[in-house]
Amino acid sequence: MGRKSAFIAIALLAVALIAWLVLFRSEAPDPAMEQSDVSLSLSIPDFSTEQLAGKALFDANCATCHGANAAGSEQGPPLVHRIYEPSHHGDQAFILAALNGVRAHHWQFGNMPPVKGVSESDVGKITNYIRTIQRANGID
């Protein structure tokens, strides 16, 4: 009975792993996606003073890779994308990625290094700015 239960558990684990890979790999966009298409169709809202502070921090620390208005570039993915909606990548994920770096897992741009010189407070302001653009583009 023990061997049969172990075999069933391993089989269920394998099925779950395959299902997870299929689901999460299918949501990753085509790496050949034209970033200019994203920027051309991006809706930019009016920003509050606090959101403009986040934009200034984003422009200084993140835009080189993540593009103007977080629309992506050849160096990094767009953050205005359903992959980064709050239910999949919460605000804490942005903070951890900026402060500690993150291994590539949705895109083919390579690992993201830690962003030197930004504080947790800075990343909170940047995240607020990104979330504002996301909401303006139907990503909640």
What features would you describe in this structure?
This protein has helices spanning 2-27, 35-41, 49-61, 63-66, 91-100, 120-136. The chain is mostly helical and 140 residues long. The chain has 2 domains: 1-30; 32-136, Cytochrome c-like domain (Cytochrome Bc1 Complex, Chain D, domain 2). The protein starts with a helix and ends with a helix. The model is unreliable at 19-28 and 30-37 (pLDDT under 50).
Feature tags:
140 residues, mainly alpha, Cytochrome Bc1 Complex, Chain D, domain 2, 6 helices, 55% helix, elongated
Measured between the Cα atoms of the first and last residue, the distance is 48 Å
| CATH topology label of the largest domain | Cytochrome Bc1 Complex, Chain D, domain 2
Strand content: under 5%
Roughly what percent helix? 55-70%
CATH superfamily of the largest domain: Cytochrome c-like domain
Instruction: Enumerate the spans where pLDDT stays under 50 for 5 or more consecutive residues.
Output: 19-28, 30-37
> Total helix count?
6
Extended strand count: 0
Q: What is the number of independent domains? A: 2
Using the alpha-carbon principal axes, give the shape: elongated
Task: Provide the CATH top-level class of the largest domain.
Answer: Mainly Alpha
Average pLDDT level: 84
Order of helices and strands: HHHHHH
Largest sheet: none
Radius of gyration: 18 Å
User: Which structural class fits the helix and strand makeup?
Assistant: mainly alpha
Q: What would CATH call the architecture of the largest domain?
A: Orthogonal Bundle
